[in-house]
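User: Predict the structure for this protein chain, please.
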Amino acid sequence: MKRDMFTFTKNVLEHVSFDPSLFCKELEKAIRILLPYEIEQLTEWLLQYTSEKPELRQCLIYVNK
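Assistant: Here is the predicted structure, written as structure tokens:
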């Protein structure tokens, strides 16, 4: 079964969330390859996911461009 890029991206971001700079780097990569509707989904997910992880909030700048 083919996994969509949004799900793949979420998994990658969850795995690198221990390191804010790596998280930002992976998020930046994701923004370049995801489709516009996937970026919207990712933005919603990020807002929820980073609410408990303030050290990652700085990375939201990449989805607010």
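Helices lie at 5-15, 20-33, 36-50.
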